[in-house]
Design a protein that fits this description.
The complex is a heterodimer. Chain A is of the alpha+beta class. Chain A is 35% helix and 17% strand. Chain A folds into four domains: 2-54, no CATH class; 69-146, 2-Layer Sandwich (Phosphorylase Kinase, domain 1); 150-336, Transferase(Phosphotransferase), domain 1; 346-501, TolB, N-terminal domain (Rossmann fold, 3-Layer(aba) Sandwich). By secondary structure, chain B is an all-alpha fold. Chain B is built from eight helices and no strands. In chain B, helix 2 (10-33) packs across helix 4 (62-91). Chain B has one domain. Chain B has helices at residues 2-6, 10-33, 43-54, 62-91, 115-128, 130-141, 146-153, 157-175. The chains are: A alpha+beta, B mainly alpha. The A-B interface holds A 4, 8, 12, 15-16, 19, 46-51, 53-61, 63, 107-109, 138-140, 535-536, 538-541 and B 42-45, 48-49, 51-52, 57, 105-110, 128-129, 136, 139-140, 143, 145-148, 151, 157, 160-162, 164-166, 168-173, 176, 178.
């Protein structure tokens, strides 16, 4: 009996050790850990195969999280469920903002997913759905992320495809997002039109960066040899049809596998069809590996067709070497008149800051696809106009921040000789009258906007701002600053916006000494222990894995100039 | 008996088993009578509700609560297995049909599962690794969360997670031998 117990203990050790490693490292680990013991090795391999195949076996459908409190998040309605888990709306009660929380389905060996989510949390890009926080609750991985309201890109593509201008517009945004992630060493691994959400103002946001576990080797082998009709698993089909040939061959993909997926996406956007198809997963894989996609119609600009073909080279060495290159190629696609009309519906929400710049000596920053732009400001210099920041805290106490930061930033940018500041009242009036940011750009004689937000936690502020070229949706520069000294933050923001635009400032901001107000009730709500509200509710502990930079136990301060 | 148990006599709880079993069975039957197709019965809800019914919580310390769940999970397992047996014999034309537990949602993702086979495999697993057997019983039949299971067994949630993963794989391999 003790012999069998010893043996079981060995099986456990090697099994757990294998699961702590990545899928691709497991075979080598098992081989070395088992040494000459072929029986042990066979048993562990049998169990690992069963583990991969088991999926949701014995897992009781987890109870709804709606109404629960996880850390500082109040969980609201369930938005949907996918292979990885369920997604809920939630409210961050500390920052007073709406977020989305993805809750993993199965407890267990999710340590790798956690690590990847932590990497993804480092990404900060306007076209990537931001991961705010990562942790576990009752053994389930929870990923708190930006709530993106919009529709999946997959649903927006008509049967005949999007207009080339639209396809390029989203293509550039996605390529830019990929470039940012790749620079940070994060690959997406499951980029597809279903993983991209387009907001009402036509911004693409890529979801689930680095969070996809892709397909485990065993699943991939099963899937790619399956002769079952492909409709059996929509998600799998979507994932498979975006997979690069090298992934199907079992190699580890790198950033170039994402570039392949970008090619699939561009093809789908321009033609309304996926480049590779098959009635069964087996046929689909054969098509990806060996067939050339049907030619993209000639109505699509040649430069776009070439970019798509380059992304869809079977050999990764023949593709764009970097996603930046793909981005540049897309930016070079000549576009028709539809380009600027795509901004018609870009209605800036009432309290979004817009810093409008007239392109003068900074035109070169906007890329090669410049169009006849509006004229310079009255003084012949690039003009900037500042509107109110969106204040995410929404508290009565901090409502002054919207206009406060607005006026400080306007003042700061006005210290730049190369820029002309447009009075904010005038811009708000234009927005009121036209409700249109592109109209605003035209009337103000500008083509560039900076959109920004303020978030607050305790005494710490975070200011986010991004400069956008209104004619093509390109991000010219994006920046965020965090700290407790609002004046220093606005200074930094001003400097970074200037740097991003390639202009230099002189002079300094005049600064008033801060006037401290009495501390508000900002107890450091660090207690992560959740007490069940009734004995029939689930008990659990929120274990935070990524520190939010937006917390501070310090009292709130406010200033007045 | 309840007082003895909460006064720290765990053996008293063993004698409570028939009581817990009866209560869980009664609850399950009453859930079924409500005929709410949108509301699937969950083992965890039953166990928690039985706990509320049988125990005055103010009198029970957490350890007592853990013991209760341990017993209730066993009771739930027995109820479901008894039911599966009775159902199997009813199919063969013998005997009356007991509590209709068909819709008890013990395993959302276990199509065509054979509860009796699972019960037997679980008994074999328990012989191999008693802790893993208990974890499966608590989680699958008792509907306890990872943290609750960890509390009952006084081990860390991470250990529960690892053991649960291996136990699932082992049972899966037992019940679904590779046919290719």
């Amino acid at each position: 009996m003790s012999g069998s117990n010893d043996r079981w203990a060995r099986v456990k050790d090697v099994f757990n050790g294998a699961l702590a490693r990545g899928v691709d490292e497991r075979p080598a680990y098992v081989a070395s850990a088992c040494g000459q013991d072929d029986g042990l090795r066979a048993e562990v391999e049998r169990l690992l195969a069963a583990h991969v195949a088991a999926g949701g076996f014995l897992e009781i459908a987890p109870p709804s999280m709606t109404g629960q409190r996880i850390g500082r998040y109040e969980i609201g309605a369930r938005l949907g469920a996918g292979g990885m888990g369920e997604v809920y709306t939630a409210r961050d009660v500390e920052l007073g903002r709406e977020v989305a929380v993805k809750v993993g389905l199965s407890p267990g060996d999710d340590s790798r997913l956690l690590r990847e989510a932590q990497h993804a949390a480092r990404l900060n890009h306007p076209h990537i759905c931001t991961v705010h926080e990562v942790g576990t609750f009752d053994g389930r991985v929870c990923i708190v992320m930006e709530r993106v309201d919009g529709r999946p890109l997959a649903e927006l593509i008509p049967p005949e495809g999007l207009a080339p201008d639209e396809a390029v517009r989203y293509g550039i945004q996605v390529a830019d997002a990929l470039a940012h992630a790749h620079r940070h060493g994060v690959t997406h691994r499951d980029l597809k039109s279903a993983n991209i959400v387009v907001t009402a103002d036509r911004r693409a946001k890529v979801l689930d960066f680095g969070l996809s576990r892709g397909l485990a080797a065993g699943q991939l082998e099963d899937a790619s040899t399956s002769r079952a009709p492909i409709t059996a698993d929509g998600a799998l089909a979507g994932t498979l049809s975006s997979m690069a040939p090298e992934l199907l061959r079992g190699h580890d993909g790198d950033a170039r596998a994402d570039i392949w997926a970008l090619g699939v996406l561009l093809y789908e956007m321009t033609t309304g069809r996926r480049p590779f198809a098959g009635a069964t997963p087996f046929e689909l894989c054969a098509s990806i590996l060996h067939e050339a996609p049907a030619p993209v119609p000639a109505r699509v600009p040649a430069a776009l067709r070439h970019a798509i073909a380059r992304c869809l080279e079977k050999d990764p060495r023949d593709r764009f070497a970097q996603s930046e290159d793909a981005c540049s190629a897309l930016e070079a696609v000549p576009l028709g008149a539809a380009a600027s009309s795509s901004w018609r519906r870009r209605v800036a929400a009432a309290a979004v800051v817009l810093v409008l710049l007239v392109a003068g000596d900074i035109a070169w920053r906007m890329g090669s696809r410049t169009q006849p732009g509006p004229g310079p400001g009255a003084a012949g210099r690039p003009a900037i106009a500042v509107l109110a920041f969106e204040n995410l805290a929404r508290g009565e106490e901090t409502s002054w921040l919207s206009t406060g930061v607005q006026s400080m930033l306007a003042t700061g940018l006005a210290q730049t000789p190369a820029l002309e500041v447009i009075a904010s009242e005038r811009l708000q009036e234009v927005i009121r009258n036209t409700g249109s940011a592109s109209e605003l750009a035209r009337r103000a004689g500008a083509r560039v906007a900076v959109v920004g937000t303020i978030a607050q936690a305790g005494a710490a502020f975070r200011l986010d701002a991004r400069v956008e070229d209104l004619t093509n949706g390109r991000i010219v520069t994006a920046t965020s600053v965090t700290g407790t000294d609002l004046f220093a933050l606005v200074d930094q923001l001003t400097t970074r916006i200037r740097d991003g635009l390639g202009v230099r400032g002189t002079g300094r901001l005049r600064r008033c000494p801060p006037r401290r107000s009495t501390p508000t009730a900002s107890t450091a709500r660090e207690s992560m222990r959740i007490s069940a509200s009734s004995s029939t509710s689930r008990s659990g502990t929120w274990r935070k894995r990524s520190a939010s930079t937006r917390r501070s136990p310090m009292p709130t301060s406010s200033w007045r100039c | 008996m309840l007082q003895q148990w909460s006064a720290g006599r765990p053996d008293a709880l063993e004698r409570l088993m028939p009581l817990v079993y009866g209560e869980l069975r009664r609850l399950a039957a009453s859930y079924m009578r409500r005929e709410r197709p949108d509301h699937t019965l969950q083992a965890s809800a039953l166990v928690h509700e039985a706990f509320l019914k049988l125990v005055d919580q103010r009198e029970v310390r957490w350890q007592g609560r853990a013991h209760f769940f341990g017993i209730a999970a066993q009771a739930m397992r027995r109820i479901l297995v008894d039911h599966a047996r009775a159902h199997a014999s009813a199919k063969r034309g013998a005997g009356e049909r007991p509590v209709a537990l068909d819709r008890v949602d013990v395993a959302a993702d276990m199509p065509g599962h054979d509860l009796l086979a699972l019960d037997e495999a679980l008994t074999r697993l328990t012989a191999l690794d008693a802790q893993q057997g208990r974890i499966v019983e608590l989680r699958f039949f008792g509907g306890l969360t990872m943290d609750e299971t960890a509390d009952v067994l006084r081990i860390s949630p991470a250990t529960v997670g690892r053991d649960w993963t291996l136990a699932k794989a082992w049972l899966y391999a037992e019940l679904r031998p590779p046919d290719r």
